[in-house]
Amino acid sequence: MADKVIHVLLVDDHQVVRRGLRTFLEVQEDIEVVGEASDGAEGVARAEELRPDVVLMDVKMPGTDGIEALRQLRALQNPAKVLIVTSFTEQRTVVPALRAGASGYVYKDIDPDALAGAIRSVHAGHVLLQPEVADALLSQDEQSQGSGGGRGSTLTEREREVLGLIADGRSNREIARALVLSEKTVKTHVSNILMKLDLADRTQAALWAVRNGMTA
Known about the structure:
With 216 residues, this protein is of the alpha/beta class. Helices cover 52% and strands 12% of the residues.
């Protein structure tokens, strides 16, 4: 079981929140909290030191906020999945966080069991887009929506199928099973999709698919 445990780093400026998250997560057999940080800068340093599988990241923190910390982690090519856990629901917070590379966005009033499920989901390679987040993205900047849609014409039919499954939250392994392909072939399709659409990662690909009506 040791190699199946999901190692989690908590990044939040409120000690009470971190304590509450740790207390709940420590009773999960497959989740281990390996460290904590009280702001974004410390979170980046701890993520580099501890190499967690998943980082639970608040958005609004003094000094380096969660979005800037996300950008720094991506610049460092840190492989940790980042799940935003916040009380802020505004579009101006949701969209930049996802564009910075977050794998999911949940609110602090989430049911504890649902949070554990969200951690497992992003660790498995899923993109966690709650309905409210998808609505925010669909209502965002119609002009960019129109200008970006044309790039979809460069995708092959198979790439469109893969993109739709990415938007549906499927991991590469699940996409391979659904389309009867090897995982290596799926990875190649994903790389081609990102290149053709000029996107940084599969999270952005999922957002692009939602905004352009290409969900599975």
